[in-house]
Specification:
single chain, 121 residues, 74% helix, globular
């Protein structure tokens, strides 16, 4: 098994555990608080890893990076809000639709060629 496959499996496992924790916390904590602390802890982890690996923050294309952060935060809040009111399995399946939307938007906005056999609605 390649290193990439192992990392992908560990990533899926970590996000699954995160979803279970968020679902449990949603009974006693607001969605905004959960999203804030998840973002805060993630930022600390990423900054620590960047420092260890001597990677510097990018100073190029700040507006696009800001838009990515805002949209990512909105997406995270939406998923956490859905976890509050829907069964965990349903939210997990629906959140996997992001790959479909990436393919669709790449074809429309970036003019990328879709893989053979893929169909758009």
């Amino acid at each position: 098994m390649s290193r990439g496959v192992i990392y992908a499996i560990l990533s899926a496992l970590a996000f699954s555990i995160q979803n279970v924790i968020v679902k449990e916390l949603s009974y006693t904590t607001s969605t905004g608080e959960i999203a804030f602390f998840r973002g805060f802890l993630s930022a600390l982890l990423i900054l620590g890893l960047m420092r260890i690996q001597h990677v510097h923050l990018s100073k190029r294309d700040i507006p696009t990076l800001t838009l990515r952060g805002v949209l990512g935060g909105i997406g995270m809040i939406c998923i956490f809000y859905a976890l509050r009111g829907m069964p965990l399995a349903d939210v997990s399946i629906i959140s996997q639709l992001s790959a479909f939307f990436v393919m669709l938007f790449a074809a429309i906005f970036l003019k990328e060629v879709l893989p053979p056999g893929s169909k758009l609605p």
